[in-house]
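Students often ask why we bother encoding 3D structure as a string. The short answer is that it lets us treat folding as translation between two languages. Here is a chain of 108 residues written in the first language.
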Amino acid sequence: MHATQVWLRLVPSNYITDFFSFDCRGWIFNNLNKKGIGDNPATWQTTFTTICWYLWNWRNKSIFEIGFQRPSNPTLVIQKFTREIEDNVKLVHKSPHQTETIYIGWLG
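And here it is in the second language, the structure alphabet:
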């Protein structure tokens, strides 16, 4: 029930029918290939994967961590983290890329 409410709040209403109509594999591939859904400036792929990660993480914590409480407003938590990811992606693309290859390894 919790996950459905989060999805309903974050998936734009005009995509809800399609969103819930795929089998698992189709659902994942369809959502990872969509761009610019809704008013959120972040790409849908980032939003979708962030929602999946948080829902999985909160579910596991509720099972394995005594006293864990889900956030009172999960939508805000997800939107904030999605914006942080998108901001960092923009910084990486603006910064000069490393031109030197550095090989690392283990000595054993």
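Translate back mentally: DSSP finds five helices and no strands in the chain. Keep this in mind for the problem set.
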